[in-house]
Every structure is written in structure tokens, then in C-alpha cells.
Amino acid sequence: MRKTLTLITSFLLVINAFAQKTTKVEVDATKPLVTIQPTMYGIFFEDINFAADGGLYAELIKNRSFEFEYPWMAWKHLPEAETRFSIQNELTIYNNSKGNPNNPRVVRVDKRDEKKELGLQNEGFDGIGIKKGEKYDFSALARLNKGSISLLVEIINSKNQVIGSTTVNLLGSNWQRIEGVITATETDPNCKVNVFFKGAGQLDIDMISLFPQDTWKGRKGGLRKDLVQLLADLKPGFVRFPGGCIVEGRTLAERYQWKKTVGKIENRQQIVNRWNMEFKHRPTPDYYQTFGLGFYEYFLMCDDIGATPLPILSCGLACQFNSSEMQPLEDLDPFVQDALDLIEFANGGTDTKWGALRAEMGHPAPFNLQMLGVGNEQWGEEYFERYSIISKAVHAKYPNIKLVSGTGPSSDGELFEQAEKTLPKLNAQIVDEHYYKEPKWFRDNATRYDNYDRNRYKIFAGEYAAQSNGVATPDNKNNWECALSEAAFMTGLERNADVVYMTSYAPLFAHVNRWQWTPDLIWFDNLTSFGTANYYVQKLYANNAGTKTISIKSNGENLTGKNGLYGASSIDEKTNEVIIKLINTSSETHTIDLNINGLAAKANVKVISMLEKDIKNFNTITEPNKIVPVESAISIAQGKANLVLEPYSFKVFRIKK
Predict the structure, then answer these.
(1) What does pTM read for this prediction?
(2) What does DSSP assign to residue 57?
């Protein structure tokens, strides 16, 4: 019996040794190679999937200024059955274009019978998320034309019970901002807001608003705190905004115009969101842009989280997937001026027109804009002509501003090849490439930039995400295979940091009930949010970038997918650490026989691990922590260690040098 057990044990040891492949990995920490730019890992923001209104912008009232195509969208008249056909009490839309041409519609309230109830109810964005004990700021613009009317504002829960209220009075016949504070007595993700008009008389009301007081940095009318915190935790090198195809618009009239997004909130001109009717599988007729989150707020957020701003402007071409509408070259001056004025808005002194506006809005100090994007996903001669004109004008006045141009919607094919040939002739500086591909493409393309021309433009990997089921299909998931494949691809981005200056996953945000496109980096509902496995991969790279690359090889070759192994390594000169990233995309366990040249006799190592046996698994709003990083610690002597890489794992090692 003992002989049989010995044979079985020996057999199992042989099987285990065979299953755990050993790979020798050499890291040279004595010879720094190329600089990793501070902008290497950043954020791409676009208002898709209700990322701005109903998302990052913390406003809880939908269609607050009644400027949707149908002005009563998101609103109910109260009592619903009586108000529409009442001659005693009426709610009508009044055109105030002489008073405010950018925001002309207001509600006229005629309350002739003070005994009868009259009011409005707003449904919010898929309901209104309210938290017990939190305070909420109600506000509106109103004028009392005659009589005496006060407002009773209520938050009602999903059972139509009042869970907080305030009374607001009006004084005088001039437009005034009226305010009140509501403290919630209950948590409910699906509330509504009632505004009842008490008394008798006539008033006009507009910009009906409700904000949580607990916003990012406590700013009134600010950003949603948990969502900005997720961005800040990434420690991004830059934020690209406002898109994306939002920049282009389906038509030129619907393009994003930054000048309409600054100044007083009530004077910003709302437009339809270009994703309003784009996806037949997810129609969103109530998707508009109020621009409460405008260019000033974007710059301010960048300032807050220590990221370089990268605004993208229209080049005079609407989306070439939609209308392909073009501004004639001879009439391109407004687009050129928009670029010049934006630089002044961001960097100009308070004695300049646009610098003065920035100061008036609350930020006298410059925003230190260093980069500007011209166009988004445009292609062909019509793009190159317009880019050339804007580029010459910008560099004539602001030679230190770096411009970002694009290669079209894909990272290969005829349009991409044309851009590769043309952009060097235009002295392109940083060029945006996009990749929405299957996970295998990302694993296979970890060497994409190994042989890129080092003497031409630099690369901005501006939009990428592994697609689990095909580009732009509603079945795509943020599963572990996608995230792990992106981690493998990113080893090649980091290894080639002398070519690749900037990278960002896309899209950024999605509401769990109101999305149009998947996959996305961060998901949220009305009260909570979570990072996907892809988010944590991005976070591990951004938080562990280092300042210079160093060599990491196996048998003299880079780790670029042989046996499913990928690797990247750097040093952080600020903390005097060696950083090693190792990825195992195979179904087998690998033992890494690691040798680091240039370490002390003994070193402490922080290990951050992500792994998941089921590569189709993913985080959800109800199970947000299925796949998250886990930290541990080990020590190594003389720079040597045996490390275990489990199947489908990603590990980061930070070692004191």
C-alpha cells in the first residue's frame, strides 16, 4: 500500500510540474530606457449612455427649462385628469424669447381658484435617487405677475408618499431666483418631485431644479460625488472631452459649440443629444444636452483631479456616418476663431475677453491648457484640408499648443492608410487611433507599436475597448476576457512609450437602465456606481505607470504573448521603485523564475493581483466586487524570486529599488 501511495505521489508531482510551466524572466533595473509621459493613461469622456445629464452632472430634474422638442416631456400636470381642460387653473408654455433667446420657454401658471390643487410633477432620469438624511437644494427662476402664489415642493417616494418638502415664497414682479432646502426622511432610487402652486394669481417659472448638497467638493449645482471620485481614483494624466461623436453632431447645427456651454447656466442654449435617435435597439427620445456640464465645468474637474485638459473641437465637418455636412473652406473662420478663443478662455489673462469670462465664472487663474484636438473621427481630404487651416492659425498665435489629429474611425484599412501617409506632410504632432475589436485582436496586437516610425508623429490611443460580441452590439459585456486582453495590449503601449504618449478606454460612463452602447468603463444607477474589471485594469496601469521603461525579457525576447504571457516594466524615479506588470492570458498556471538586475540584497514587494477563473464573468450593480484587485506583500532577496501566475491573471509588483 505504501509503495502504491509513493507512486501516486510521484505521479502527481510530475503532473503538477508539467502543468506549471516555468518561464525565466530578466528585468534590468540599471538601464532606464524611454520616458513615460505624465499623460500616458487618461480618461475619455463623452455624453453617451446618459453620462452627463442624468449622470455626472448631478441635476435631478429632467427638462428643467422645458426646452425639449416636446416641452412637457418628463412633466405631468397635477391633478392630471383636471388640469389639462380646466378654465379655472391653467399651465401653459409662454414664449419669453425677448427676455432670453437661448432659453425662451417658461411655464405660465394661471391660478384663478385658490381652493383647487394645481401643480407639476417631474419624473427625473429613470426616477430620482434620494438618500435618507441628505439635504437637497430646490431652486427655480420665477416672476409673480399678479396675485399671491407660493410653492410647495415635495419629494415623493415610489409609493407616492411624501418623504421631504419645503415651501418657497415669491416677492415682486421681476425675475428672481427662488430657493428652498429639502431634507429626505427615506432612501429611494425611484422618487419624483411635485411642485404645487398655492394661492391665486399668475406667475411665470423656469429652470426648476433639484440638486443634492453632497456634490463633488460640495459645489452648488455641481457634479455627482461618487462618479468624480471614481475618476480621481484613476489618477488620470488627462481628460479628453466632450467626445467623441458629440463633437461632430449629426449635422453642423447639432455639433458641440463650446461658447454655448459657458457663462450663466440659464443662458446656455440646450440642444438635442446626437445619440438621441442613433441606436434603434435603444431609442432615447428624451436625450438632450442642457450644458449645465459645460467647458468651464470640464476644465474645473480636470483641475480638481490633477489631469491635463484635452478639449476636442469641431473642424467644420458633421459626423461622416450621418449627414457628412461640411462647412465650406472659405467660411471656416468661425471654427478657427473657436479654437483661438478657447485657448484664450483657458489660458488668457483676466484682461482678455475670454479670460475675463473665466474669472467671472470663478477661476481667475489660467487652466494651463497645453493640448487641443481638431476633429474627432473624421477622414479623407475634406478633413485634412480643414485640419491644416486650423493648425496653421493656432500655431501662428500659440506655437506651444500641441494639436491632436485623427486617423478616422478605424486602426486599419484604406482610410487609416491614407491618414498615415497624409498626416506627416501636415506636421501632425499627436495622432488619435481607435480600436474597437474582439479580445483576440488586443492580445495579438501587443506588438503593434514595436516597429512604428520613431521620427514621425506620436500616438494617442484615444478610444479602445475589447468587444465581447461585436462592435456596438447590445450584447457586449465588460467581462474578464475583455479586460485581461486589454491588459495584455497595454503592455505594448507602455513598452513603446517613446511613440505612445496618451491612451484612454472608451466609453467612460453608462447608466444601467439608460445605456446605448456597451461595453463601458463605469456603470451607475440613481444612487450607486461601480467600476468594471476593465476599470480596475486601467487603474492598475495609471496608478503604477512609473517614469521610465526598463527591459523585461524572456530568453532575450519581449513578453508579447508566447504561452499566453505578457509583460511590461518600469522604474518610478519619484519613489525609487521597480514596477513589473505580468499577465497570463492562458488557462495554465505559470511559474516565473524572476531575476531583477539592480536590486538590493533584500527588498519588500507589494503585489496587486486580479484573477478570475471564469473569463466570461463580470461585475454588476448588484455584485460590483466580483473582479477587483487584491493586495498582498512578499519579500525577495538578491533580486530573485519564483512567482506564480495563475490562469487568467494580471499582477503588478512594486519593489523598492
Answers:
(1) 0.95
(2) B
Residue 615, all three cell numbers: 473569463
* Residue 553 amino acid letter: K
What letter would DSSP give residue 41?
Answer: B
CB neighbour class for 59 (10 Å; exposed up to 12, middle 13-18, buried from 19): buried
pLDDT grade for 84, boundaries at 50, 70 and 90: low
Is residue 377 among the annotated active site residues?
A: yes
Q: Look up residue 220 and give its amino acid.
A: K
Q: What is the pLDDT of residues 3-16, one digit of tens each?
A: 443 443 333 333 44
Domain with CATH 2.60.40.1180 in the chain: 20-35+434-441+479-484+513-657
Q: Exposed/middle/buried for 508, CB within 10 Å: 0-12, 13-18, 19+?
A: buried
| Torsion region of 641: left, alpha or beta (phi above 0 gives left; psi -120 to 50 gives alpha) | beta
Q: Which three cell numbers stand for residue 540?
A: 492598475
Q: In this structure, what C-alpha cell is assigned to residue 581?
A: 506588470
> Are β-strands 238-241 and 308-313 bridged in parallel, bridged antiparallel, or unpaired?
parallel
Lookup: cell for 386: 480643414
Where exactly does CATH 3.20.20.80 map onto the chain? 43-58+216-428
Instruction: Provide the CATH number for the domain formed by 20-35+434-441+479-484+513-657 in this structure.
Output: 2.60.40.1180
Alpha-helical segments (H) within 521-656: 533-543
- CATH 2.60.120.260-classified regions of the chain: 75-212
Q: Is residue 240 within 8 Å of 223, Cβ to Cβ?
A: no
Asked if 134 contacts 213 with a C-beta cutoff of 8 angstroms, the reply is yes
Residue 568 has pLDDT above 80, yes or no: yes
Residues 6+ apart with CB under 8 A from 233: 539
CATH number of the structural domain 75-212: 2.60.120.260
Ordered alpha helix ranges (H), 100-178: none
What CATH number does domain 43-58+216-428 carry, 3.30.1330.50, 3.40.50.2300, 3.10.20.600, 3.20.20.80? 3.20.20.80
Selecting among 325, 377, 433, 494, the annotated active-site residue is 377
CA dist 5 and 551 (Å) reads 46
